[in-house]
From TrEMBL:
<feature type="compositionally biased region" description="Polar residues">
    <location>
        <begin position="595"/>
        <end position="610"/>
    </location>
</feature>
<feature type="transmembrane region" description="Helical">
    <location>
        <begin position="79"/>
        <end position="98"/>
    </location>
</feature>
<feature type="transmembrane region" description="Helical">
    <location>
        <begin position="246"/>
        <end position="268"/>
    </location>
</feature>
<feature type="domain" description="Protein-glutamine gamma-glutamyltransferase TgpA N-terminal">
    <location>
        <begin position="36"/>
        <end position="432"/>
    </location>
</feature>
<feature type="transmembrane region" description="Helical">
    <location>
        <begin position="167"/>
        <end position="184"/>
    </location>
</feature>
<keyword id="KW-0812">Transmembrane</keyword>
<feature type="transmembrane region" description="Helical">
    <location>
        <begin position="137"/>
        <end position="160"/>
    </location>
</feature>
<dbReference type="Pfam" id="PF01841">
    <property type="entry name" value="Transglut_core"/>
</dbReference>
<dbReference type="Pfam" id="PF11992">
    <property type="entry name" value="TgpA_N"/>
</dbReference>
<dbReference type="InterPro" id="IPR021878">
    <property type="entry name" value="TgpA_N"/>
</dbReference>
<feature type="region of interest" description="Disordered">
    <location>
        <begin position="582"/>
        <end position="631"/>
    </location>
</feature>
<keyword id="KW-0472">Membrane</keyword>
<feature type="transmembrane region" description="Helical">
    <location>
        <begin position="53"/>
        <end position="74"/>
    </location>
</feature>
<dbReference type="InterPro" id="IPR052901">
    <property type="entry name" value="Bact_TGase-like"/>
</dbReference>
<feature type="compositionally biased region" description="Polar residues">
    <location>
        <begin position="619"/>
        <end position="630"/>
    </location>
</feature>
<keyword id="KW-1133">Transmembrane helix</keyword>
<feature type="transmembrane region" description="Helical">
    <location>
        <begin position="190"/>
        <end position="208"/>
    </location>
</feature>
Length: 790
């Protein structure tokens, strides 16, 4: 087939010595590629789930198609196509990928351009550390635009301008796989979407190849039988054959793939959710960097916090609980939020760009407004299982960006903390609590919490005593809580006539709670003890700290002004019947007896001659126990952080570049080793022959069509010029002459070979020289080796 017929066979028409794409062919290729790319983008829908992503994909496909078509019909070089892509990315990137940073909805602002640039570099990491779906949150649409726009330009340009149009499928496959990697652990009908993409790709490839074959047949028929035969016979039969083959091949391929997928998913059904990048990525907010909120419980009971308004909340029902934090990890010193165990999700906090789906939670809807007054801290008070949150005020955008949430424990946090003046509205679902009768019949649930350590022996003994003779796990749990309320007395130990009550909830303090003659403490000790006792009974348990909507805190209607005296701590236990259930283990405040109640069964110990020093109350302004394990954070200098970041980025760039360039460097190294071995041949005549072989290999690698098994003179004639002809004659004389070859002549031949190899590169572009350097033609034995021996 001639070069003209080959060009026509792939939809090109010769014009002025160059191949040109026909308009019908370009339209067909564009439509086929757009369909394939649109199917590939489906894997990104679970990440965004918003109309913004539909607009972005549509704009990206249209812009990419226009740039690729313009580059094809105007015959633009790759550099100008790159410039056009970058300009389109800058002009349209902000309106479609950062719509919040535009003027009149279309004009990008400087802040929008900055977010566009940072999103292209950092948006990939942010996608992995945020809760899905993200909608149009901040600049998180930018990564998809980075894939769709350049992917469309590259893929469609390859389909229209390359002889290997099949490579146009690489960008859609990359987009499809990236959606899986950055997506959720549960995909959107992965088998259906995968088969749809496979079917469209196979159909497009079948159309391309069969059309190329049909046009080649038409060219042959045109050359042998005339244009009329092509128009009346071959064209119709070829079109019908193409349609039958394309449809049949696609159906068979899809059916085989579907059958294989069904069999594979049946036999190799995954045990759980699929492993994606967000499954292993480290999230930026670590609750273990902060002190346990329960350790600061007594600070709310001190003046002036005890009588000062901490929160003002409207929209609450009586008995609702405003959660500050959920603490599920006990290390013998304190209860904390989350643990270092890799299997624990309790310490995993993620950003919440849009909302949480709480449709599986059985409860009542809550819509509340919160205004922070005296309260401050990193933990953000919430109600129920959070669905949406909306900050107000001048710093709303900053608070939104710094907001993190753990849906497993219902705990929210804001980096940098919140303080007086912060206002926000939130909606959530308050779970339905079982009645006392229903609670008696519950059994432990299957959820897990980190295993507590250093549980006091006195506490374990108390569990055995309290549950003696009680049957049923739910009834035993009720018995334990009832005994705590019956035997316990409430004192915050803050003076003002209150009984001595040491703060803290470490194992020694809880042991004291059960060994003293009177059980005296407050919600800090009773909640910690109740959670550990529930764990002893087999119930996953955790402590919840917050404010309870009681009558004393109500100001009017559903509005509550919570002061420090309204702070409390309760427990949650996981049940098989109702999920996590909140229980109050705290005794009702009552007078504490002045005299120690003596147990007649106990043996009275003689009084020590030397009296111990009298116990004193905790100083009023120093109630937080010295039990926290938190060490002061070591602040790394900013210049060192920047230097490490630059080094890390440079290392990754070098690693990726090395992986990409490794095959090419290997080819260059193999050729260099071959050339060195040829130059080291000892016999002068054979070294001259090796020099010709080196020149012959360079000719082949540069794409000059040297006939197989050609003589040296024939190869020199194909190359052209006088020097190849002279070199061929010199080598032939050295091979066939009877006299011995002078070693100096061999050195001169190799010097000429080096100059002639450089001459082959003199008129080439850098890209053409690179292609010649990494060409495999000479390594594959493209030309006959015996030719050099003639």
């Amino acid at each position: 087939m001639t070069a003209t017929s080959s060009a026509r066979a792939v939809g090109l028409r010769p014009r002025a010595g160059r191949a040109r794409v026909s308009i019908p062919f370009a339209i067909a290729q564009t439509l086929a590629f757009v369909v394939v790319m649109a199917l590939a983008v489906v894997t990104w829908w679970p990440i965004y789930q918003s109309i913004e992503v539909v607009v972005l994909v549509g704009v990206g496909l249209v812009l990419g198609a226009l740039i690729a078509l313009a580059g094809t019909f105007l015959r633009l070089a790759g550099f100008w196509i790159l410039v056009a892509t970058v300009v389109a990315f800058g002009l349209f990137g902000v309106p479609v990928a950062v719509p919040s940073q535009t003027t009149y909805g279309v004009v990008p602002t400087l802040a929008g351009l900055r977010e566009l640039a940072s999103g292209a570099a950092l948006g990939w990491k942010q996608l992995l550390t945020i809760t899905l779906p993200v909608g149009g949150y901040q600049a998180l649409l930018v990564p998809l635009f980075v894939l769709v726009l350049p992917g469309t330009v590259i893929g469609l340009s390859t389909a229209l301008r390359s002889r290997r149009a099949e490579l146009a499928l690489v960008p859609p496959v990359v987009v499809y796989l990236a959606g899986i990697v950055f997506g959720p652990e549960t995909g959107l009908r992965p088998i259906v979407t995968g088969l749809a993409l496979l079917a469209a790709s196979v159909l497009w490839l079948a159309w391309w190849r069969l059309r190329r074959r049909r046009l080649a047949i038409e060219e042959v028929t045109l050359a042998t039988q005339g244009r009329e035969a092509v128009r009346t016979g071959v064209h119709r039969s070829g079109s019908r054959a193409f349609a039958r083959r394309a449809i049949a091949g696609t159906i068979v391929t899809v059916l085989v793939a579907a059958a294989f997928s069904a069999a594979a998913t049946t036999v190799l059904h995954p045990a759980g959710a699929r492993l994606v990048a967000r499954s292993v990525v480290a999230h930026p907010f670590d609750p273990r960097d902060y002190d346990s909120p329960l350790s600061g419980f007594r600070s709310y009971e001190q003046s002036p916090a005890v009588s000062s308004t901490q929160l003002r909340v409207s929209g609450l029902d009586s008995g609702d609980f405003v959660r500050i934090a959920t603490l599920d990890t006990y290390d013998g010193v304190q209860f904390s939020v989350g643990s270092g165990a890799a299997s624990s999700d309790s310490g995993t906090f993620t950003r919440v760009p849009t909302s949480f789906d709480q449709s599986q939670v059985n409860g009542s809807q809550a819509n509340v407004a919160v205004t922070v007054d005296g309260y401050s801290g990193v933990w953000l008070p919430t109600v129920g299982q959070l669905e949406t949150i909306d900050f107000s005020g001048s710093d709303a955008a900053t608070l939104r960006d710094d907001f993190f949430y753990n849906d497993r424990t219902g705990t929210a946090a804001v980096l940098g903390g919140v303080s007086s003046g912060v206002s926000y509205r939130l909606s959530g679902v308050v779970p339905t609590e079982p009645t006392s009768a229903e609670l008696a019949a519950v059994t432990p649930g299957t959820d897990s919490v980190p295993t507590p350590v250093s549980v006091p022996t006195a506490l374990k003994n108390a569990v055995s005593t309290y549950t003696d003779g009680v049957t049923g796990q739910g009834a035993r749990l009720q018995a334990v809580l009832a005994e705590l309320k019956k035997n316990g007395y409430v004192s915050h130990g803050t003076g003002d006539g209150q009984a001595v009550s040491r703060s803290g909830h470490g194992s020694d303090r809880l042991s004291q709670l059960f060994t003293d003659s009177l059980m005296v403490g407050d919600a800090e000790q009773y909640s910690a003890a109740a959670a550990l006792m529930a764990d002893q009974l087999g119930f996953p348990a955790r402590v919840v700290m917050g404010f309870s909507a009681t009558a004393s805190a109500r100001t009017s209607g559903s509005t509550y002004d919570f002061t420090g005296s309204d702070i409390t701590a309760e427990i949650e236990v996981d049940t098989a019947q109702y999920g996590w259930v909140r229980l109050d283990p705290n005794p009702t405040p009552r007078p504490i007896p002045d005299q120690t109640v003596t147990n007649p069964d106990q043996v009275t110990r003689p009084q020590s001659v030397v009296q111990p020093p009298p116990e004193v109350n905790d100083p009023r302004n120093n109630q937080t126990p010295p039990q926290s394990k938190q060490d002061p954070a070591i602040v790394t200098p900013a210049w060192l952080v920047a230097l490490l970041l630059v080094g890390r980025i440079a290392a990754w760039v070098l690693l990726v570049a090395g992986l990409i360039m490794a095959p090419f460097l290997t080819i260059v190294a193999v050729k260099a080793r071959r050339r060195r071995a040829r130059k080291r041949v000892r016999e002068p005549a054979r070294r001259m022959t090796a020099g010709w072989e080196e020149f012959h290999d360079s000719v082949v690698d540069h794409g000059i069509p040297a006939p197989p098994n050609a003589t040296r003179s024939e190869v020199a004639a194909v190359v052209g010029g006088s020097r190849p002809v002279v070199l061929a004659r010199v080598v032939d004389r050295a091979v066939f002459a009877p006299e011995t070859t002078d070693p100096a002549d061999a050195d001169r031949v190799w010097k000429a070979v080096g100059e002639m190899r450089a001459g082959l590169d003199s008129d080439l572009t850098r890209w053409q020289r690179f292609k010649a350097a990494v060409s495999l033609r000479s390594l594959r034995g493209y030309h006959g080796r015996k030719a050099s021996q003639r």
